[in-house]
Structure formats: C-alpha cells, structure tokens
Write a structure and sequence with these properties.
- By secondary structure, the chain is mainly α.
- Helices cover about 75% and strands about 5% of the residues.
- Strands 1-4 form a two-stranded antiparallel ribbon.
- α1 (about 10-35) packs antiparallel against α2 and α1 runs parallel beside α8.
- The chain is elongated, with a radius of gyration of 24 Å.
C-alpha cells in the first residue's frame, strides 16, 4: 500500500463526500414525496428502494472508516486487513446502479417506440455490470487482506468500465431520440433542447465518477483513490434519479405559457397539422403540443420581426 495520505486519507475523503451527497439524497427524497404524491406506486417504490440501498451503503462505509481509523487506531498490522463492510458495500452500490439504470433503460424503451435493439443494447450493459459486481463480492468476501484483493483488479476495472459505458449509451440514445423528435416549431424545439441538456447532465456525473475510478485503479493501483470515487458513485446514481423525477414540475411550469405539456412517461406527440383537431401518431418524445396556437404564435413572431427589420 502507499502512504496514509493516498490510502486511508483518500478513503476518509470519499466517505465525507459520500455523506454530503447522502444529505442531498435525503432532501431530494423528501421533496419528491411531498411534491409528487399522485405518482404511480411503482415509482414511489423505486425511490424508496433506492434510498434504502443508499442508506445501507452509507452505513457500511461509515462502519469501515470507523473500524480502520478509530477501532484499529495505532495498530499498523490491522490496516492491511479487510473489513467485511468494505466488501459488502460494493453489492449495495451495485443494487443502486441496477435500479437507476433499469429505470433509464425503460425510458429508452418507451421513447424509442419499444425498440428491442436499443433496449437490449443498454440492458446488456446494465445487467453485465451487476453480474460482475456479484462475482466480485462472491470472490472477495473470503479474502482477508488488501494484497489478496489486488488479484481482482481486472474485475474491478470491468465493473467501472461497464458503468461508464452504460451511462454514456443511455445518454446517447435519449439525446438522439429527442433530436429526432423536433417539430420545427420554435417553442417545442426549445423544450426538446432543455430535455436533451437535462439528459446529458443527469448521466454526466455518474459517467465521470466511474471513469475516474477506472483511471485511478489503473494508474494508482497501490492507493485507495479509486475507492473514494466508487464510494460516491451510488450516491450520484441516486441523486440523478431523484433530480430527473423532481424536475418534471419545473419543466411543465416553463411550458405552461406556451400551450405545451410535458410527460416523462408517455411517448405520444400531436401531428403538425394546422387546425383544431389533433391526430395522435407514435413518436419518440413525450411532449404534446397545441399546434394551432404554436403555429399562430410563430407566424405572429415572424411578422413582428419582419416589421421591425423593415422599420430599421
């Protein structure tokens, strides 16, 4: 192992940052249940399950750092031994990632008009990551020292690589599907731009964290820097899910004055025909637009801009 600064020092920093993010998780969870009481029971169950997994993970890593830095304080030989909670926490991080990425995979399935290819390509990475997590825990649970744990370095790298790949692929699919759903109307396209940016942001932090964990275990394999990043990964997954769910009312609020409504669950859009009737056609974006009002407003805006230009 390296020095205390880049081993248990990095370990402690990871736990502190993770605890801070856990506080954000609790606030977001409270906000969700207070603002969205009418959500379907399975979405509420998902949020509760993710919070439970996140809470157990935080308790486990707190137990780990307490054991090394308090219980075993001054006993140098014990610093090279594995604490059981350090191994078990990997499983709960895997549970959190599985639930959040499965939720996002279902969104890809719905927005892609139930495309089997798109869904399976994402789902294979999500399930593959969780399977590797289970294998990692099963192999390491009987180990007693960090020296033994280094033999599982390739497996640890594969877990982080699949996590990053899954997050990136989900973001790419969502952005592509949203981009293909542009209507040509200014206000609806503005809303789609917001959704694209939101999709990128929700997957960006988890991808960066997984990549940093992968890089650090590859470059600084004698330190615990990669553990610090991995501690925070589950917390970022949880907060990305809650941020996605909690943003719905604010996005709807932005669109109310533009005769638009937003649903993060549906996948239907009105056709771009002029008139009062609205024909439902399958599409890959969950925005419904009053095309009559949108057309009139765009025409009015264009006429106003033309007059202003002529006046100049």
């Amino acid at each position: 192992m390296g020095t205390l600064d880049n081993t248990f020092g990095a370990f402690l920093i990871g736990v502190v940052i993770s605890a801070t993010l856990y506080g954000v998780t609790c606030v977001q969870t409270w906000y969700y249940f207070s603002r969205y009481p009418s959500d379907p029971w399975y979405i509420k169950l998902l949020v509760a399950a993710v919070l439970l997994s996140d809470s157990v993970h935080q308790a486990l890593i707190t137990h780990t750092v307490y054991t090394y830095l308090v219980t075993d304080f001054g006993i140098a030989v014990d610093l090279g031994k594995l604490v059981w909670s350090l191994i078990v926490e990997v499983l709960f991080n895997g549970f959190t990632a599985l639930m959040v990425q499965s939720f996002l995979t279902m969104r890809v399935y719905r927005l892609s008009n139930k495309s089997i290819i798109a869904t399976l390509s994402v789902l294979s990475l999500v399930i593959g990551e969780f399977v590797l997590v289970v294998v990692y825990v099963a192999k390491s649970i009987h180990m007693t020292t960090f020296v033994e744990l280094t033999t599982l370095k390739p497996l640890s790298m594969a877990v982080n690589a699949l996590a990053a790949a899954g997050d990136v692929l989900i973001a790419v699919f969502l952005c592509t599907l949203l981009q293909q759903s542009r209507t040509g109307f200014r206000r609806s396209d503005t809303m789609i731009n917001k959704l694209i940016l939101f999709s990128i942001n929700t997957g960006l932090l988890t991808s960066i964290c997984a990549v940093m964990s992968l890089i650090s275990i590859s470059v600084w394999d004698t330190t615990f820097i990669y553990i610090a990043f991995y501690f925070c990964l589950g917390r970022l997954y949880c907060n990305s899910l809650l941020a996605t769910l909690n943003a719905r009312k604010s996005l709807r609020g932005d669109s109310q004055d533009e005769n638009m409504s937003l649903s993060l669950q549906g996948i239907q859009k009105t056709s771009n025909s002029i008139g009062t009737s609205q024909k439902r056609v399958p599409n890959n974006i969950s925005i419904k637009i009053d095309t009559t009002q949108e057309y009139v407003r765009d025409e009015y805006s264009s006429a106003t801009e033309l007059k202003s230009a002529q006046a100049v």
